Amino acid sequence: MYPSKFDYHRPSSVQEAVQILSANPDAKVLAGGHSLIPVMKLRLATPSALVDIGRIDALQGISRSNGSLRIGACVTYDEIANSSTVQEAAPLLAEAAGQIGDRQVRYRGTIGGNLSHADPASDLPAAALALGATLHVTGTGGSRSISATSFFVDLMMTALQADEILTEVEIPAAGAGTGSAYAKWEHPASGYALCGAAAVVTRNADGSCASARLCFNGVSSTAVDASAVGASLAGSDLSDGAIESAVNDNLSIPDATGDMFASAGYRQELAKVMGASALRTARDRA
Amino acid sequence: MGISIELEVNGASVSDEVEPRLLLAHFLRENAGLTGTKIGCDTSQCGSCTILLDGKAVKSCTVLAVQADGSAVTTIEGLANGDYHPVQQAFWDNHGLQCGFCTPGMIISCVDLLSTNPQPSEDEIRHGLEGNLCRCTGYHNIVRAVQDAAETMNG
Ligand SMILES: Cc1cc2nc3c(=O)[nH]c(=O)nc-3n(C[C@H](O)[C@H](O)[C@H](O)COP(=O)(O)OP(=O)(O)OC[C@H]3O[C@@H](n4cnc5c(N)ncnc54)[C@H](O)[C@@H]3O)c2cc1C
Ligand code: FES
Ligand code: FES
């Protein structure tokens, strides 16, 4: 199987890339290619041109300064999972990236591609939400910053304009007393998330909950922030019982997905189990 | 529109003019004549097309040849250096194959796994090879082969 014909561009700067995108309305950005090439081979996507951003230096690299972690859009899952900087500043992201696909996929897939593709079953969107990430994007009109909360719009739809490229993901570095966890229930054949729960918990000096955040992949058309669960845990003692009732009483997934793999009701229940499990692990790590 | 690419394949420099949509797997098999790399599923699942791209195991059915421009590729044909590579020998010694279709990709993935984790546990081996499917062996002898290769390579 091979894709239909397209023109290939390999710009060396973000500016050049966005110029090409704006001149070719149905051109697509190519990053790791591990979602785009498969859909092009199936001819579900037939862009007239690809703009390969894989060699743009400005989209590489992981750095930490002034309390924030910055990851270039073209950094791969393998680099993220094995980076000591990410493991320290945003261990949730390293944990989620390490659970994506298989070794070969992790060498190619990129954080920018994962977030821009916005597949509801992919593993990084919930982590980006739970960590309060800011996504930096550049288009022909200049650069802007979008919070993860406003970035994911709907099924495979983001706030990116057609001529915009996601350039960098910025995450506030984890402070003292914070723990996190990603609990994934994999689809047994594809390995994608049937439900992936990303939890971040911060404890006060006395051990009580200062704040908690629980977000999900896989259960709805887009990543979900179960903010009512987080709010109800604040001030609690974070006991297993407190976590269980916070989840059971406050978790509702609007428009839970029901498909040939799992009904909406099943996903709701799975989200409770995986959510509580992620919160308990995050608490133990805080 | 043809695009000129130049890459290193098993240590030799190769230049060609290719269509952008040419997949690396087809480039290796049809343009470079290296048919050791197999295409199984053609949908990024099975790993039989796995090759090393700049030292990392990737599924060559999911990489465009133009993306490999300037890179170094190693296929199964490039592993043996007079003698079999220790991983190839270990697959032979431990009957790590039956029909052999998955074997080139499987061996390349094992080489990659051992390069980052020279002494993997059984669990790490099974987990490390999750991107390679074998429909014959049931994996047991593949795991044995990797353990054996690890021992040989660690001297
Ligand atoms: C066998 C297999 C198993 C997988 N399992 C999982 C899994 O378990 N969990 C998971 O999360 N994912 C999984 N994936 C998907 C994988 O993570 C993809 O790599 C990811 O979805 C897309 O990232 P990419 O870098 O490959 O992007 P590409 O495929 O290159 O691009 C994807 C889309 O995003 C756009 N895009 C890419 N980068 C940018 C950017 N910087 N700015 C703007 N737009 C951009 C492209 O135009 C395209 O529309 C799997 C893939 C395969 C082949
Ligand atoms: S042929 Fe490439 S993964 Fe199956
Ligand atoms: S030996 Fe036949 S598929 Fe693995």
Keywords:
heterodimer; A: 286 residues; alpha+beta; Uridine Diphospho-n-acetylenolpyruvylglucosamine Reductase, domain 3; Enolase-like, domain 1; 3 domains; 26% strand; B: 155 residues; 2 domains; 5-stranded mixed sheet; 5 helices; 5 strands; binds flavin-adenine dinucleotide; binds FE2/S2 (inorganic) cluster
Could you characterize the architecture of this molecule?
With 286 residues, chain A is of the alpha+beta class. Chain A folds into three domains: 7-52, Uridine Diphospho-n-acetylenolpyruvylglucosamine Reductase, domain 2 (2-Layer Sandwich), CATH 3.30.43.10; 60-172, Uridine Diphospho-n-acetylenolpyruvylglucosamine Reductase, domain 3 (2-Layer Sandwich), CATH 3.30.465.10; 178-285, Enolase-like, domain 1, CATH 3.30.390.50. Chain A has helices spanning 14-23, 36-41, 77-82, 84-89, 91-98, 103-108, 111-117, 124-130, 148-151, 227-233, 240-250, 264-285, and strands at residues 7-9, 28-30, 49-52, 62-65, 68-72, 134-139, 142-147, 152-154, 157-158, 165-172, 178-186, 193-203, 209-217, 224-225. In chain A, strands 4-5-10-6-7 form a five-stranded antiparallel sheet. The longest helix of chain A is centred in the last third of the chain and has 22 residues, at 264-285. Chain A is globular, with a radius of gyration of 19 Å. With 155 residues, chain B is an alpha+beta fold. Chain B has two domains: 3-78, Ubiquitin-like (UB roll) (Roll), CATH 3.10.20; 86-154, DNA polymerase, domain 1. In chain B, 33% of the residues lie in helices and 16% in strands. Chain B contains five helices and five strands, in the order E-E-H-E-E-E-H-H-H-H. In chain B, strands 2-1-5-3-4 form a five-stranded mixed sheet, with helices on both faces. In chain B, strand 3 (50-53) and strand 4 form a beta hairpin. At the A-B interface, helix 2 and helix 6 of A face strand 4 and helix 3 of B.
